[in-house]
Amino acid sequence: KVTAVAVEFVNGEGSDATRYELSDYLNRTANEDGTFSTEYNGQPWSAILTTKPNVKVYIKTAEGENNTEIPSNKLTLEVTKDGAAVDQTQKANAGTYKVKLVYTDNNQTYTVDEKTFTITPKTVKITVNGAITKEYDGTQSLVLPAGVTLTIEGNPADLTVDPNALQYASADASTAAINIVLAEGETTCLTGDAAANYTADPSKLTGT
Fold first, then answer.
1. Model's pTM, two decimal places?
2. Residues 112, 24: Cα–Cα separation, whole Å
């Protein structure tokens, strides 16, 4: 019968060392519950998961003995999404991931710590070039006048605004500006390959 050897990882050499956390390793601040989150910025995982300078991980040893430092070349970071490995050279798209610090020795792997890492969509501002206006037709439908366009701040690649996903907040005629909102049944007005990485609030848009 083979018995697994329990390995405890700590953050210091002495007896006052505490359980090793991913926040001890990564050069970023964890949330209160120990998880991590950041807004999408187009960076690859390799740029997001940088480590603290001179970071060290130790294996807890017998009482009265100094803890054993793990060589840095035996530590690696793994990223998974829904159980599948993620290529860390690729952009960190919006979503929920698991980041694991792994210790490998003699072809055996041990999890030092694992935490949830959430990439939240970036909020972008939509601006209108021209004036949104139409004659009363009894509907809330939005049809952009000729020459009027909707643009996104920063002009992100592979991202556009779909006017068909927007509507007037009211179908009534008004001399005052009427807010532009998401059309009924729509959850976003953004389209394109990068749409899942962004969110937009059209509430600052108005029309007459």
1. 0.84
2. 11
